Amino acid sequence: MSLSVSASAATVLDKSSPTVVDVDLGNRSYPIYIGSALLDQPLLLQRHVHGKRVLVVTNETVGPLYLDKVVYSLTKDNPNISVDHVILPDGEKFKEMDTLMKVFDKAIESRLDRKCTFVALGGGVIGDMCGYAAASYLRGVNFIQIPTTVMSQVDSSVGGKTGINHRLGKNLIGAFYQPQCVLIDTDTLNTLPDRELASGLAEVIKYGLIRDAEFFEWQEKNMSALMCRDAAALAYAIKRSCENKAEVVSLDEKESGLRATLNLGHTFGHAIENGLGYGEWLHGEAVAAGIAMAVDMSYRLGWIDGSLVYRVDKILKQANLPTVPPDVMTVEMFKSVMAVDKKVADGLLRLILLKGPLGNCVFTGDYDRKALEETLYAFCGC
Ligand SMILES: NC(=O)c1ccc[n+]([C@@H]2O[C@H](COP(=O)([O-])OP(=O)(O)OC[C@H]3O[C@@H](n4cnc5c(N)ncnc54)[C@H](O)[C@@H]3O)[C@@H](O)[C@H]2O)c1
Ligand SMILES: [Zn+2]
């Protein structure tokens, strides 16, 4: 694999042939298309639409930007197709039951039958909600993802985790439900706010650290290009991230072990999101500080070299991401949220920690508690 953007990026940007990453899941396998101007290639989308009825689910920010394009792509030279849409309010706080019900209201009012297709157009919130709606409407209808944030293009649209939040916790209600395809038109990132772009890069950095040293080294050389929205660099980062996620998901779809490693930094990150109140920090920002904490702890355990701690701190800062939790976080706040983490088994908190050379990690409850304590005190005021 070359460390330069150019060769791979040229393929990704070739309008006639999008880069394709396959998610290999037997009879539920599907392609991820990645490239520029893919929404101008109607056949790409149309070949994955089943039936004659489509419901596009989007929100009030993304709808005005891309809904017309998606409807054009679905209907061009395809007179038999009819497209309905539902526009949801924007924000994580709307990833809940009442908003989900608006999708069902629209589908039922429009008399959509089992052969319809739901299309998610938006970031991870829309993708997770639309996917869950598709999984449960008439016990399951076809589903296509058109992710429009870095976060959703490199992570949430791939792998079939769908769902909504409950007031007592994030993503507590949901289903594994794989789409027919994921269509990533990298041009949609042109309208994405800088802070959202950076937030998605936290997950990109994560893939390098847990399983792809070469990709991490590429990021070290290309982080400024990514931050400047260099199209070739972004397309390459998305492709490589999707390849990593697709491979992990193919090996462990329902998260019996390996898939959990995708949560590097997330246990600490969730404590921050929870402590601050959801929406204060973006998910990727909380994960970035969480990665810095997991790396610190791995070093205290003697599992990684000090130079890696330095490299992680540097790349997170280059991506304009936080490397410490916000001031309000206390050791007790971390401990109380971590005690009810989904990864607690038999009273033992399992964490994803780096171990060995760059690109290696473990998911384990077998670590010296003192190291966790020290990390929490090192990162919190009290
Ligand atoms: N299913 C999974 O495996 C998985 C993985 C990671 C995250 N998630 C979920 O994803 C969600 C976070 O996703 P997100 O970071 O994409 O947040 P988001 O969906 O809230 O999108 C972020 C913001 O960007 C706006 N936006 C989206 N695309 C845009 C564009 N092209 N131009 C301008 N604005 C645009 C959105 O309207 C929103 O305001 C969380 O709910 C999280 O739980 C799920
Ligand atoms: Zn995440």
Mean pLDDT: 93
At the fold tier of CATH, the topology name of the largest domain is Rossmann fold
Q: Write down the secondary-structure element order.
A: HEEHEHEHEHEHEEEHHHHHHHEEEEH
- Percent of sequence in beta strands: 15-25%
CATH architectural grouping of the largest domain = 3-Layer(aba) Sandwich
Task: Tally the structural domains.
Answer: 2
Q: How many individual β-strands? A: 13
Report on the biggest sheet: 7 strands, mixed
CA-to-CA gap between the ends? 45 Å
CATH class of the largest domain: Alpha Beta
Strand order of the largest sheet: 1-2-9-6-5-3-4
Describe this structure in words.
With 382 residues, this protein is of the alpha/beta class. It folds into 2 domains: 5-191, Rossmann fold, CATH 3.40.50; 264-382, Dehydroquinate synthase-like, alpha domain, CATH 1.20.1090. It has helices spanning 6-13, 42-46, 62-75, 97-109, 124-136, 150-156, 194-211, 213-227, 231-251, 266-276, 283-300, 306-318, 331-339, 369-379, and strands at 19-23, 30-35, 53-59, 82-88, 117-122, 142-147, 161-166, 169-176, 181-185, 344-345, 348-349, 351-354, 361-364. Strands 1-2-9-6-5-3-4 form a 7-stranded mixed beta sheet, with helices on both faces. A hairpin with a 6-residue loop joins strand 1 and strand 2. Helix 8 packs antiparallel against helix 9 (231-251). The protein binds nicotinamide-adenine-dinucleotide and zinc ion (ZN). The site of zinc ion has 5 residues, from helix 11.
